[in-house]
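re the bet — no i am not wrong, look at it urself. input seq straight from the record:
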Amino acid sequence: LGIFMVNMKKVREVWDLFQETKVYNFTLLPKEQAEKLVNEIPSDTQGVVVSNVIEGAAASQAGFLLGDLIIGMNDKPLVESTDLRNYVGTLRPGEQVQCRLLRDGKEMEITVTLGDRDVAKQRDEQLRKEFIARRQSSVTPLPPNHPPIPNQAPDLQEKSKPKLGAVLQDIRSSGVLILKVLAGSVAANSGLKSGDIVISVDGRAVNSIQDLKEAISDIDFDFQGVAMEIMNRSGKRSVLVGKDTD
């Protein structure tokens, strides 16, 4: 489908904790969106909340939005994100799925066509060309006397939290280039690779290393995850970095 999800049950738990501590550290869903869901959705309603929509994917083309609560697919009720994944896995590319969801407190249906390979192929090819052009024109080469790439990324070190574990470089256009991913790090375990360009974090544009540092400065990757939009030679994708809260 091309979406990131979080269980509605989890959203309620996070909001209850926020009411007690007055600290909101749930990076997969903006605080305003969580508050809206908790206030609008009956407490006994179950389902999965759309926390990120991948641009150009089936869900995006069908009109899914951040904060949509999916409660059913083809008359099958959804309780957890695994229910959705397991059901979609039984379907073939090209099949249509009727999704029941709640948006702004009102129930509606959206029809999604799975696996439109021609559209995906064209989109990925365009993204690949864009990526190559950006790499050729935007990357600032390291000077000849630049020291070897270190085994640590001191600009992203935090004593109290797990480190991202990536060596980065600013580029002239938007995004941050990953030069190296440290073995066994959060970045490596999340599937990030050298050559990837980080475009955004949880929908927040990343135009420099400083932007990326600020976006993840309060993240404890052992307990939280962030959705990073990545561009590489294969195209554009979203990657959940850190703890998978689904």
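see?? DSSP finds seven helices and twelve strands in the chain. told u. also The CA atoms of residues 28 and 51 lie 6 Å apart. so pay up
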